[in-house]
Design goal:
This protein is mainly α. It has one domain. The protein contains eight helices and no strands. Helix 1 packs parallel to helix 6. The N and C termini lie far apart (39 Å).
C-alpha cells in the first residue's frame, strides 16, 4: 500500500468543501469550538466505520442492486435539504445564546450514510487503494485509520474558521446572511447527487 498517496487523498477530500465541512463551519460560528467537538467526533468516527462497512461488502451490494443506492441518495438529498433549512433558520438574536444545539456524535456519525460525498470518498478509496489478497481486510482497516488520523485535523480547520468568523458576524443581520449563505452552499453541494439521481431515473 502507498501510505503517502492514501494520506494525500484523505487530506484532499476531507479538507475541501462539502456537506460535512459546511455544517462544521456553520456550527463553529453559531455554537463555538467546544460545543462543536461532538460533531467533529461523530464525523471522524462515523466515516471510517462507513468505509470499513463498504470495504467489507456494501459496495458490492450496491453494484448488484443499484436501485438501493439511488434510494439512499434520494433520502440523503431530502435530509440535507432539511439540514440546509435548519442552518438558514438558526436563531440569531443573541450569538451567546446556549439554547441551541449542535449536531451530536451519533447524529453526525449517522449523517455519513446520507452524505453523497462520503459515499464517493469511501468507494473511491476502497477501489483505488486495496488489492485482492489475504491482507485485504487489513488494507481496509489501515485506510480507515488513515482517514481518522488525517481527517480529524481537516474537520477542525473548518470549525476554527467558523469560530474566528464569529467576531465579524457579531450583528444578528450579518449572522443571518452568513447562515443563509451556508445553507445555499449546502444545497449547491447536492447538485452532483441530484444529477446522478436524475440519470438513474432516465
Amino acid at each position: 500500500m502507498d501510505y503517502l498517496a492514501i494520506a494525500l487523498f484523505a487530506v484532499a477530500t476531507c479538507v475541501t468543501p462539502g456537506p460535512n465541512n459546511v455544517m462544521l463551519m456553520s456550527s463553529g460560528v453559531n455554537f463555538g469550538i467546544n460545543r462543536t467537538m461532538r460533531h467533529v467526533v461523530g464525523i471522524n468516527v462515523g466515516f471510517p466505520l462507513m468505509l470499513i462497512a463498504i470495504g467489507m461488502g456494501a459496495g458490492a451490494l450496491f453494484r448488484a442492486y443499484p436501485q438501493m443506492h439511488t434510494g439512499l441518495q434520494i433520502a440523503g438529498v431530502a435530509y440535507m435539504l432539511y439540514l440546509a433549512w435548519r442552518i438558514a433558520t438558526t436563531p440569531t438574536v443573541n450569538m451567546n445564546d446556549k439554547s441551541g444545539s449542535p449536531l451530536g456524535v451519533v447524529h453526525a456519525a449517522m449523517f455519513q450514510l446520507v452524505n453523497p460525498k462520503s459515499w464517493i470518498m469511501c468507494i473511491g478509496a476502497v477501489l483505488a487503494y486495496t488489492t485482492p489478497s489475504d491482507t485485504y481486510l487489513a488494507q481496509v482497516l489501515l485506510i480507515a485509520l488513515i482517514f481518522f488520523v488525517f481527517g480529524t485535523p481537516c474537520s477542525l480547520v473548518w470549525v476554527l474558521f467558523g469560530h474566528f468568523l464569529k467576531r465579524f458576524l457579531n450583528r444578528p443581520a450579518m449572522l443571518r446572511v452568513f447562515n443563509v449563505a451556508m445553507a445555499l452552499l449546502l444545497v449547491a453541494s447536492l447538485f452532483p447527487a441530484a444529477r446522478e439521481i436524475a440519470h438513474a431515473w432516465q
